[in-house]
Amino acid sequence: MAREIGDVILKMEGISLSFGGVKALTNISFDVREHEIRSIIGPNGAGKSSMLNVINGVYHPQEGQVTFRGEVRRDMEPHKAAKQGIARTFQNIALFKGMSVIDNIMTGRNLKMKCNVFHHALHWGKARAEEIEHRKKVEEVIDFLEIQNIRKTPVGRLPYGLQKRVELGRALAAEPSMMLLDEPMAGMNVEEKQDMCRFILDVNDQFGTTIVLIEHDMGVVMDISDRVVVLDYGKKIGDGEPDEVKNNPDVIAAYLGTSH
Amino acid sequence: MSDPRGQAELNTFPRLLMQHAQQRPNRPAMREKEYGIWQTYSWAEVAQNVRAIACGLAELGFKRGDRLGIIGDNRPRLYWSVAACQCLGGIPVMMYQDAVAEEMAYVLQDAEIKFAVVEDQEQVDKMLEIREQCPLLEHVIYDDSRGMRHYADTFLLGLDELQSMGTAHDKSQPDFLDGEISKGGPDDVSVMLYTSGTTGKPKGVCQTHDAFIQSAKGGCQFDKLTENEDILSYLPMAWVGDHLFSYAQAMVSGFTINCPESGETVMTDLREIGPTYYFAPPRVFENLLTTVLIRMEDASWFKRKIFAFAMDVAKRCGAEILDGKPVSTSDRFQYWLSNLLILGPLKNVLGFSRIRVAYTAGAAIGPDLFRFYRSIGINLKQLYGQTETCAYVCLQPDGQIKLDSVGKPAPGVEVKLAENGEILVKGPMLLKAYYKRPDATAESINEDGYFLTGDAGFFDEDGHLKIIDRAKDVGKLNGGSIFAPNYIENKLKFFQHVKEAVAFGNERDYVTAFINIDLEAVGNYVERRGLAYSGYTDLAAQPMVLQLIKECVEEINAQLAADPMMADSQIKRFLILHKELDADDGELTRTRKVRRKFVSERYAVLIDALYSGKSEQHIETDVKYEDGRQGKVSADLKIEEAKTFAPQAAKTAA
Hints:
Low-confidence stretches of chain A: none
Structural class of chain B: alpha/beta
Strand content of chain A: 15-25%
CATH architecture of the largest domain in chain B: 3-Layer(aba) Sandwich
CATH topology of the largest domain in chain B: Rossmann fold
Low-confidence stretches of chain B: 1-7, 649-654
Number of domains of chain A: 1
Number of helices of chain A: 10
Keywords (chain A): ATP-binding, Cell membrane, Membrane, Nucleotide-binding, Transport
Structural class of chain A: alpha/beta
Distance between the termini of chain B: 55 Å
Number of strands of chain B: 28
Strand content of chain B: 15-25%
GO molecular function, one term (chain A): ATP hydrolysis activity
Number of helices of chain B: 23
Domain ABC transporter (chain A): 10-258
CATH superfamily of chain A: P-loop containing nucleotide triphosphate hydrolases
Pfam family, one (chain A): BCA_ABC_TP_C
CATH superfamily of the largest domain in chain B: ANL, N-terminal domain
CATH class of chain A: Alpha Beta
Oligomer: heterodimer
Distance between the termini of chain A: 45 Å
Strand order of the largest sheet of chain A: 6-7-8-3-9-10
Largest sheet of chain B: 5 strands, parallel
CATH architecture of chain A: 3-Layer(aba) Sandwich
Largest sheet of chain A: 6 strands, mixed
Protein name (chain A): ABC transporter ATP-binding protein
CATH topology of chain A: Rossmann fold
């Protein structure tokens, strides 16, 4: 492998998050290194999505601190996270159903557009050149994800697996340094999962993008991750390389249940 | 040679290419869609690239007579590699890109290939997989470098690097390549195409420059093709048709080849390019029509009404107008109106607005399907040929289209029939030899120089050739008349409810048939009539389905009765098989052709029942499931009698 895992770029320390009386996350710490594929796993309601939401600033934890590329922060706004190069996809697909694949992916370029709204509205001057440049980038993403044939199809008409791929495309279009993928393979058949795995590995390999991934399919997680964090009822019960985690008795208990 | 000097020189593909680069340097030679935009390469650019690839190959050590393996989708750089190889006096060998590694290993070994140009990582992986088995293979050159970053093997080289090597070589020794081109002659082998191998191992068919150039010239004259044509090249490069239509004819007349973006985008690309010259096997035309009809069913009632009106008009007079036959003024007006409202826009959606000539071949095309395209004003024609004849034997002339013939012998081709009805052909397009197989060559070309096609057919009263079957499958009924199983089976298969059929009758008193129903079409049919069924076996045994198929068989019988040669081949008794014929069970070949002998042995008990007058027969069959498990299917099959017609009576009825 050409990519080399670098230093820690994201550090979560003592994160606790609660909604009223419900404790979603309790005192969780882990880190993410540059260029690695880091998975967060755990049974339903373990707090995995909450964790992602903390990372990109949708939720603000009551305790603990997040350090991203040396910058310590507690309150983060999603748009700032995006500006710092963090892109994400969602568990329940958040695309614009009536818009074409190209337009959806183009929205991922939004932050990179520099011309003002009037230039864009008139499609005039610099805006033209800018649009061409962004479109080129979008086409590269389309080529990368092999979705040329659905370029102009409205997203709502696509099967689920392809919608997931388009969502990945939109995240990629922002040229992020870190991608948060919330269950990218949920509800897919084996073949679709294989495709998605390949794309995730290719993204990581070709662009060096750091990937934080939530996934339920243990086979997939163990195959593609460099390191895995295991959550259960908002607590961290395991952390380490896939083999290590697989043999952790707490993890086995959380997944298979124990006799009480 | 009696040719004027200028003509005689253009007798190889590299010379043709260099000629185009000089005469029409700025005309588009190829287009390829990249990042969603069509990129155009002019003839001058193509020639430049071909030179670079050729010199690069020479630098790697490619020698005259070496074979160059070429594997991938229709990409410009792969076509250039074909030309580059020919410049060096080498022989390009195209392989089917979707073949598995094992099948490629066979061709690589058989053709003793040392150099291969492949499209992408997928093909590179196959080459690496079979490297051990093919010790001769020295260099694999890849077109698309995506995903190739981690491949450090020195056995691999990017086409980009090869081209820059070649460009430098061409600069330092500018005379080298011209020298190589001038060494080539028209009788050199220009390409090796492998037969599909339905009968035994694939054989490499060696074709000369002259054979393909003559065939291409003949075709271009026949259909008046000019440098202004646009063709979409989307069928496998390893297939003789693509080599003739896309490569040879473009080289001869200088028209434009358009390469689709990917296999899945062909429909969109077709519409964007709007080719003027088009080839597709029947199933493509069928799929297009189905898509149209399905979408029409979802349209509003008003749209459906005008669609139905336009189709009526087209059916009545469309084909006649296309053929230039006399048609009443009122019909002409209605056709004009239909064309304005429906047919024109429809053709536009299909990407057929600019088509002047379209061909289909490879399998029998259903008469309704064929008529549909002709009636909406697309000049769809049939042709006949095989790999050994550069796909160039018979063509349908404009204005003389018959649904069930393949047309007249093409310019320069001589066709005659052997005593057993086998079609024999002779002409400049014949193969030079099968590679390393003098025995096979001797078997297929007789002492008078005729190629034995293995097909049986006859000429009708207007001199059009009708193909009925493979010669070896044609038998005789006990009554003495000929029995052509394929002919009957194809007729049955034109019904949407029949998926597969096997006819029996050789050395029997009458004809019988096994039928496979089309699960989807028949399932749909019974569901609409409120009948529930649990699977194929159950569906096949429903009385309603038996009745449906019986009607189909009787319709065929009426048609057969009208044909004096075939009147005795009417199907007397038939049954619907309890399982689908399947390649996994060895009943079909991988290309979905019935393995007649195997089927008749496996189901001998059913054949006996068909000829013994029983009305029911129990059968138990082993089947292999997709996951490799074995199982059994058993059923009691009903045997049906179908109505047959006396030859005379049918004529008035039909």
